[in-house]
Amino acid sequence: MINVALPKGRLGERVYGMFERAGFGCPEIRKPGRKLIFESQETGVSFFWVKPSDVAIYVERGAADVGVAGKDILLEYAPDVYELLDLKTGCCRMCVAGRRDFRDDTTRPLRVATKFPNIARGYYSELSREIDVIKLNGSIELAPLLGLSDVIVDIVETGGTLRENDLATLETITQISARLIANKVSYKFKNEEITRLCRGIGEAVSQEAEEK
Ligand code: PRP
User: Fold this and answer.
1) pLDDT band of 80, cuts 50, 70, 90
2) What is the 3-state secondary structure (H, E, C) of 64-111?
3) Bridge partners (DSSP) listed for residue 156
4) Rounded to the nearest 10 degrees, how much is the dihedral formed by the CA atoms of 74, 80, 87, 12?
């Protein structure tokens, strides 16, 4: 059996479609309900839904053999896992954003509100810019509006949240998308199964790209 940790929510459902397309479906998963684990003896795959930011933990510790995690989570937590494939979905950007008229006052540390303190620190340390990180858990866009921070480091997908709050992207740090990741021990001992799964999903990703 290969255990797969999928991120709960819209992205997870889209990604599950790729597994299905690759021949690793488990029809029961589509039934509405609160069940968390779905097993298919036929394909030898067992899926479970976890909070998106927890997928990498399940995979790193071997509770899941493979999983799907956003590149944002992989950059932020640097889990000890293999990154097998870019699924080319869940695409967005990690950005610095702030008020449109923002001007950096380099005589003092820049106050940065974010859910991603490590990404923010890494980015500004490359620029040799001293920062004061303010770790928040959501609605990050509020911080510069209320004067809690000078800028934010956050995910921008459509740009709608920034626009509706009179904020703008100031810099793009990196592109983000969903990645197929694997536990290192599982990759060694279930190599044949994981390689087959990875190949199948890779083909599903290419097919979806062609259809776009
Ligand atoms: C994310 C992110 C932005 C928003 C960006 O928040 O933190 O707030 O989505 O998307 P957009 O560019 O399409 O508007 P999320 O929905 O995860 O909620 P959160 O504020 O609780 O983090």
Assistant:
1) very high
2) CCEEEEEHHHHHHHCCCCEEEEECCCCCEEEEEEEECCCCCCCCCCEE
3) 93
4) -70
Whole-model pTM: value is 0.94
**Ligand 1 centre and the CA of 158: distance in Å?**
9
CA 114, CA 154: separation in Å to the nearest integer?
A: 6
* Closest protein CA for atom 10 of ligand 1: 157
**Is it the case that residue 33 has pLDDT exceeding 90?**
no
Whole-number Å distance between alpha carbons of 200 and 197: 5
pLDDT of residue 209: 87
Closest alpha carbon to 91 in 17, 43, 37, 157: 157
Contact status, residue 150 vs residue 111, Cβ threshold 8 Å: yes
Q: Whose CA is nearest to atom 17 of ligand 1?
A: 138
